[in-house]
Every structure is written in C-alpha cells, then in structure tokens.
C-alpha cells in the first residue's frame, strides 16, 4: 500500500465583477491609522460592520503581493459607493470610496501589464485567436506570460514576449470568472 500526500485544493477563480479596488493599508504620513471602512447592506443603509483585514480574500495568487495595498474585487458601483467581495466566502457589501483606495476598471488595471493564465484553467481558455472568438491561431502555454495591450468585453489583446504579433485571449469565462492574473516578478539578486 502506498499513501499519497493530500494535494492542496485548487482555489476557486473569483467572479471578475466590474473592476478592482486597491485599498491602501499603510498609515498616513503623520503615522495615524487609516479611517475605518464601514460595510453596508445597501449604500448608506443597514451597516454590517467594519472591513477587517483578516477576512479580506487573499488574492496574492492572482495579483501578486503588495506591501502598501490590498486588492478587493468590485462587483457594482453607485456613485462613490462600491460593492466589494469582502471575505473568502464571497459575501459582498457596500463601502464608500474614500482617500484610502483607488478604483480601477479591468480595462485600466490590466492595460500595459504582464499577465499569465491562472492555474487550472481549462484548455479551451488557452486558445489564442486572430479576432475575439474567431480565427483560432495557436494554443498558449499556460506557464507563458504575455503583455496585455487592451481589454474589450471578455477578451484581452495580448502580445507574447517572443513574438511581434497580437492575439486575442479570453480574460474571463462565460460565468464572469477571472482567467488571467498578473505575472509575479521574481527579482534575482546578483552576487
């Protein structure tokens, strides 16, 4: 009999929503703590609690780590109010956008960045196209990075580092879940 080690369960790809809130977690210049962010069931109605850094979904496997910001996926917007995914269970709540954060649509967030497919993405989403959904060209190696030129609907115009051609790749699936994330840059120390 052989005993196999339990593998780490694959993380569920989050729903993309409409964009991302990069929430500042550092103290202000005067050393004061940032103002608390209160969560509401509806904008300004029925306060649910305060945003707790310990329950914020860890998206470092998608967006990399930052020592100064925490990413929150935004699912809706009403003026300065943003509906965010506020815990690992996928619960959503509204908060008012203040000085602590910057909201970015996916188009502005991904544009010009180096991306990669998320782990466990089905083969059909590794397909590159000449036009969105038309003219299949090649299959992208899931470990290969690419530069994101622009986002249109469910499609990203990408350029592979070793090619000078542009191709289209789905960045979210039919259910609205993310298919791509940002490439983690590993800095090597030269001795």
Q: Secondary-structure map with pairings?
A:
Blueprint: E1 19-24, E2 38-42, E3 45-50, H1 60-63, E4 69-78, E5 81-85, E6 92-96, E7 101-105, H2 106-110, E8 114-117, E9 127-131, E10 134-139, E11 146-152, E12 155-159, E13 166-170, E14 180-182
Antiparallel strand pairs: 1-4, 1-7, 2-3, 4-5, 5-6, 8-11, 8-14, 9-10, 11-12, 12-13
Q: What strand line-up does the widest sheet have?
A: 6-5-4-1-7
Tally the helices: what do you get? 2
Strand % is 35-45%
Order of helices and strands: EEEHEEEEHEEEEEEE
Separation of the first and last Cα atoms: 47 Å
**Major sheet:** 5 strands, antiparallel
Low-confidence stretches: 1-8, 186-191
Structural class, by secondary structure, is: mainly beta
The coarse silhouette is: elongated
Average pLDDT, rounded to a whole number, is 85
Radius of gyration: 19 Å
Bin the helical content.
under 10%
The count of β-strands is: 14
Describe the structure.
The chain has 191 residues and is mainly β. Helix content is 5%, strand content 40%. It contains 2 helices and 14 strands. The chain has helices at 60-63, 106-110; strands at residues 19-24, 38-42, 45-50, 69-78, 81-85, 92-96, 101-105, 114-117, 127-131, 134-139, 146-152, 155-159, 166-170, 180-182. The strands form 4 sheets. A 5-stranded antiparallel β-sheet has the order 6-5-4-1-7. It has a 5-stranded antiparallel β-sheet with strand order 13-12-11-8-14. Strands 2-3 form a two-stranded antiparallel sheet. The model is unreliable at 1-8 and 186-191 (pLDDT under 50).
């Amino acid at each position: 009999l052989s005993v196999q080690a339990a593998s780490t369960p694959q993380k569920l790809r989050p729903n993309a929503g409409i964009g991302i809130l990069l929430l500042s977690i550092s103290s202000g210049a005067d050393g004061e703590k940032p103002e608390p962010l209160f969560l509401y069931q509806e904008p300004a109605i029925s306060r649910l609690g305060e945003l707790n850094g310990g329950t914020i979904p860890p998206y470092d496997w998608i967006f990399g780590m930052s020592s100064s910001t925490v990413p929150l996926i935004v699912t809706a917007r009403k003026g300065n109010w943003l509906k965010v995914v506020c815990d690992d269970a996928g619960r959503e709540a509204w908060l008012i956008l203040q000085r602590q954060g910057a909201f970015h649509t996916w188009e502005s967030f991904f544009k010009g960045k180096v991306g990669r497919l998320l782990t466990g993405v089905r083969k059909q989403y590794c397909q590159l196209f000449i036009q969105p959904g038309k003219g299949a060209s090649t299959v992208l190696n899931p470990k290969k990075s690419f530069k994101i030129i622009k986002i249109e609907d469910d499609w990203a115009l990408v350029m592979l580092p070793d090619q000078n051609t542009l191709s289209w790749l789905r960045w979210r699936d039919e259910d609205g879940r993310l298919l791509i994330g940002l490439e983690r840059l590993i800095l090597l120390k030269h001795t």
